[in-house]
Design goal:
alpha/beta; 7-stranded mixed beta sheet; 262 residues; 35% helix; 10 helices; Rossmann fold; 4-stranded mixed beta sheet
Length: 262
């Protein structure tokens, strides 16, 4: 890594640790873990992908495995706040689709105490960490899609990600059961959804196609898109469902879309 890029990255890590860490011990612990991947690549640290560390943050205790994946989302989620975490004005539940290890869910729950949080995460190893990071959430260990059935997704050796799109890591294909948001919402008798968050690695269009009824009673949607076609496709579907696009960014590969009901 170029020295200047490394310096900028460490400076970003320090800003994240200062912003999201709970007290001096939490800030020091968060900075230590944020720099761990860099230290491992420089031969200055060990790689323990099954070891779970606990970091005090202002949103609550954060539990991450010491692999190359879990900690990498913290800067975007807790410092850059890509999902615009805050107290939600609209009534209803929070749906976190593609919850991964529950970092976003932890932040949503911290800002919205007592509100129901449902985390959809098909990888069991990730779901186990959601139970630690957001203990009040209900975890649904299935994939979401346009119709019930099954889907084969790319899963990396450390079980960090289940993706429809190609990844930079060696993966294996794993089959997961698929449900739709509409079926889940109807079966659980959930009337209103305050926020639907999607980070589903290429499944975002499929999930919206299986959520037409859910979207009619959803106040806000925030999602990560993958590829220009999907980025445009999710906006088209949200507009057709009566949402206003409040903001969107796209860097050529991935993007974010923020929408609220008109």
């Amino acid at each position: 890594m170029d020295a200047f890029l490394a310096f900028d990255r460490i400076r970003e890590f320090a800003a994240c640790a200062w912003s999201a860490g709970d007290g001096w011990n939490g800030r020091a612990a968060l900075l230590w873990h944020l720099t761990r991947n860099l230290r491992v690549r420089l031969g200055l640290g060990g790689y323990r992908p099954l070891h779970i560390s606990t970091i005090p943050t202002r949103f609550g205790p954060l539990h991450v495995r010491e692999n190359f994946g879990d900690i990498t989302n913290v800067v975007d989620l807790l410092y850059h706040d890509v999902y615009r975490v805050r107290a939600l004005a609209a009534p209803g539940a929070i749906f976190d689709a593609g919850a991964n290890v529950g970092i976003a869910a932890m932040a949503f729950a911290s800002c919205n105490p007592g509100r129901p949080v449902y985390c959809f995460e098909p990888v069991p190893e990730n779901a186990a960490l959601i139970r630690l990071n957001c203990p009040g959430a209900e975890i649904i260990g299935k994939a979401l899609g346009s119709e019930p059935g099954a889907v084969r997704l790319h899963v990396d050796p450390d079980n960090v990600i289940a993706s429809r799109i190609d990844t930079a890591w060696k993966t294996r294909e794993v089959e997961f059961e698929v449900i739709t948001l509409d079926d889940f919402k109807r079966e659980r008798g959930i009337d209103e959804v305050a926020l639907l968050k999607l980070d589903v690695e290429g499944m975002e269009v499929d999930i919206l196609d299986g959520a037409s009824a859910t979207l009619r009673s959803t106040a806000e949607v925030v999602l990560e898109s993958h590829g220009r076609e999907r980025h445009q496709g999710v906006q088209s579907r949200l507009k057709s469902a009566g949402f206003r696009i409040d903001g969107e960014v796209f860097d050529g590969k991935t993007g974010f879309v923020y929408a609220s009901r008109e």
